[in-house]
Amino acid sequence: MRILGLDPGSHVCGYGVIETGEPRISAPGGNQLTYVECGVLTAPADLAMEERLAEIARGLRDVLAELAPMVVAVEDVFTHSNVRSGLALAQARGMVLAVVGLSGLRAASYAPALIKKTVTGSGRADKDQIARMVQHLVGLRALPRPDASDALAVAITHAHHRQSTALRLRVVEV
Amino acid sequence: MRILGLDPGSHVCGYGVIETGEPRISAPGGNQLTYVECGVLTAPADLAMEERLAEIARGLRDVLAELAPMVVAVEDVFTHSNVRSGLALAQARGMVLAVVGLSGLRAASYAPALIKKTVTGSGRADKDQIARMVQHLVGLRALPRPDASDALAVAITHAHHRQSTALRLRVVEV
């Protein structure tokens, strides 16, 4: 299964794509992760918010078309210490979810602490620890840049939790 | 000038379109407002967030294509007493801004208190007072439903403040 992880932002949106084999219920930790691609979608800082969001939306549409993920995983917005930053992040997340929905894909959401805990074992890991563990888990030669490694971390989190997520989705859809 | 006002939400997005003559600088209060259309874009409550945002985005694209506004005015998200409601509103606002930006239009933002003050004279007016003043200002026979009248109120606010907004935009664009 090809998973696209996204770390939304109104200036920079990180993306990371991995592939995982079918999970074996007898060996839940035994998923093989294969790295496909990661990078960042950016918009010039001097553009108005609607132009920045449109620019990143266009980039995300290209990523969805070219890399053809089966599912998308997105970092959830938490209660930000800076209210305006939190609202700007939520706006970027709304744009990302709309683009994913318009492409007919489903989005799974994961809290930042769960992503950190899944990837590093600690819910309070810093950006550098996440990047190093991501590099190790998907076998990258170089350290990915922070927004891209955060996006890969979301994708890895989905790979580890998707069985329970799939069950939840199925229950909701019945 | 044809103005589309939007009151974004992740379940219901109100829209309202008005037309205004060219402002006369000698008579700033003398703008003639003409009602064009108002309504609501909705998404079923049992859909996932990305499906709801996509459904409302599709409706908004149709509104932009059919009603061809020259500019869009959107209510700003304020610091909500309920953090989750505030983040959900911000997500809906991000979707709306991205759709507006993708269509090549600009979005002007107005704080809820300024909208209330512009339309009713009081920054603390309730929904019913806003709806009645909107009905009076654009000459509607029936009271519009709350989300639609809020959207018309944003459009009316832009009609009243667009000279200063246009100046600000010009300064930014130089």
What does this structure look like?
Two copies of one chain form a homodimer. Chain A is of the alpha/beta class and 174 residues long. Chain A has one domain: Ribonuclease H-like superfamily/Ribonuclease H (Nucleotidyltransferase, domain 5). The first copy, chain A, is built from five helices and five strands. In chain A, strands 3-2-1-4-5 form a five-stranded mixed beta sheet. In chain A, strand 4 (71-75), helix 2 and strand 5 (107-110) form a beta-alpha-beta unit. The longest helix of chain A has 28 residues, at 146-173. Chain A binds chain B through residues 10, 48-58, 77, 79, 83, 86-88, 90-95, 97-102, 105-107, 172, and chain B through 10, 48-55, 57-58, 77, 79, 83, 86-88, 90-95, 97-102, 105-107, 172.
